[in-house]
Amino acid sequence: MAIKATIFKAQLNIADMDRHYYGDHTLTIARHPSENDERMMVRLLAFALNASDTLAFTRGISSEDEPDLWQKNLNDEIELWIELGQPDERRIRKACTRAAQVIIYTYQPRSAPVWWQQLQGKLERFDNLRVFHLADDCAAQLALLAARTMQLQCTIQDGAAWFSSGEQGLTITPQRWR
Length: 178
Hints:
By secondary structure, this protein is α/β, with parallel strands linked by helices. The chain contains 4 helices and 11 strands. A 6-stranded mixed β-sheet has the order 3-4-5-6-7-11. The chain has a 5-stranded mixed β-sheet with strand order 2-1-8-9-10.
């Protein structure tokens, strides 16, 4: 029998002063059995950094045809495709042809710079691609906030995100690689 996804609930309050977006989101996150808390919390951070009323989690890891998050318009066209980790060139190329805008968030401190050095030149032709890196141990610190039921606040200003739960919090400034 296959292991089922673990369900997490999050109340996420976002104050994004850079984009003038303010909202409360009640989110249900299905954490795939092969996904760890770090990756799940990076998904939540990516949601907060790009929040809108139409941004949604997808089947993610369990689907090769879908990103981790996406935003579609009323015509079912993909406006925003968000990937986590270190996707291969073929997957990035596919995303850039299917979506108006593609964002990749990397978070592995040792392997992400090597991945970026190998692909950077090959990705120059994609004008709709942005790549961000979460430096140091941001993902590990985010994982400490993970709980089955979460009350989270995210304040974004000048490219930095203050992500907190109760008394615990951290400031994350994604490095723009592209």
